[in-house]
Specification:
alpha/beta; Immunoglobulin-like; Rossmann fold; 8-stranded mixed beta sheet; 5-stranded mixed beta sheet; 7 helices; 17 strands; 33% strand
Length: 287
């Protein structure tokens, strides 16, 4: 498992009964987590001192209950700064387990010692974009949501990357990749964090089980002659790490050689000393 264990402003303090108690900077949140199927005693006093609690509804969805939480605040990971705010379906605008991938992306780019172009697809609020730009890469950030792209711009500015060479694109990721192929553009690294289900700005439907393999095939055509890496994230239960590894090994290795690996992503739990699983990632990289 790849564990995001270098956080100072974030921690999973405890988890029990389908929920996790998290510290986001100065604030404590309780959010549901489908992986937490155990029911251990809630001895941490933070359970009663929470600043916000997201309650799931038996009919689907849910709502926040607030206890002195600002509309927006920020946390820091190394040299990166992220704006946070509670919004629909329990999210805060950041997936902290992805920090282990940010570190990996940063190191791959920094150690390349050459100009690197990165394409970040389904790029959300820009954690990987900021990490790649901080390492010195030219980054193209693509997401179908204008609001998410604007949020990512705020995170880049807060991280001192306002003038970094980042190209911000609001578009359907599949359509954008198809146009980039026609334009003859290429990238040294591709990052993708596709949703299980989604719609593009013009109603395009994305179902990951039906679309991810052909999309990886498509993206492989955008890789440069000396590509650095491909990183694929998944929060879909049916896509085990081995599936991500198999797709990358089948499509990228025959063309470029290199190596693939895949693991669950995880966050350390302070009270128990165990690790909470949080999705999966597959990586291809040159040797």
């Amino acid at each position: 498992m790849w564990v995001a264990e270098n956080w100072k402003d974030y921690e999973v303090m405890d988890c029990s009964g389908g929920e996790k108690l998290e510290r986001w900077g100065d604030y404590l949140l309780i959010r549901p987590d489908p992986q937490v199927i155990w029911n251990t005693p809630r001895e941490n006093p933070g359970w009663k001192k929470r600043n916000a609690h997201y309650h799931r509804s038996s009919r689907g969805g849910g709502e926040w209950e607030f206890f002195q939480l600002p509309e927006q605040w920020e946390i820091q990971y190394k040299d990166l700064v992220f704006h946070l705010k509670p919004f629909s379906f329990k999210h805060t605008g950041l997936f902290p387990e992805q920090a282990v991938n940010w570190d990996w992306v940063f190191e791959r780019i920094e150690h390349a010692h050459r100009e690197i172009k990165i394409l970040n697809l389904f790029a959300y609020t820009g954690g990987a974009t900021c990490a790649a730009a901080k390492a010195g890469a030219f980054v193209t950030h693509v997401d179908a949501s204008k609001g998410m792209v604007n949020w990512a711009k705020e995170n880049a500015k807060a991280s001192g990357l306002e003038k970094a060479p980042i190209r911000w694109i609001v578009d359907d990721c599949v359509k954008f990749v198809e146009r980039e192929i026609r334009r003859g553009n290429h990238y040294d690294g591709i990052i993708m964090d596709p949703p299980s289900y989604g719609r593009g700005p013009k109603g395009e439907i994305w179902k990951i089980e039906e679309s991810i393999y052909s999309f990886i095939q498509l993206c492989t055509r955008l890789l440069s002659r000396e590509p650095l890496f491909v990183l694929v994230n998944s929060y879909t239960t049916g896509l085990a790490p081995a599936v991500l590894d198999y797709m990358l090994a089948s499509e990228v290795v025959p063309q470029f050689g290199g190596k693939t690996e895949a693991q669950e992503l995880g966050l350390p739990v302070t009270d128990s000393g165990l690790v909470l699983p949080c999705g999966a990632a597959g990586r291809w990289y040159c040797i």
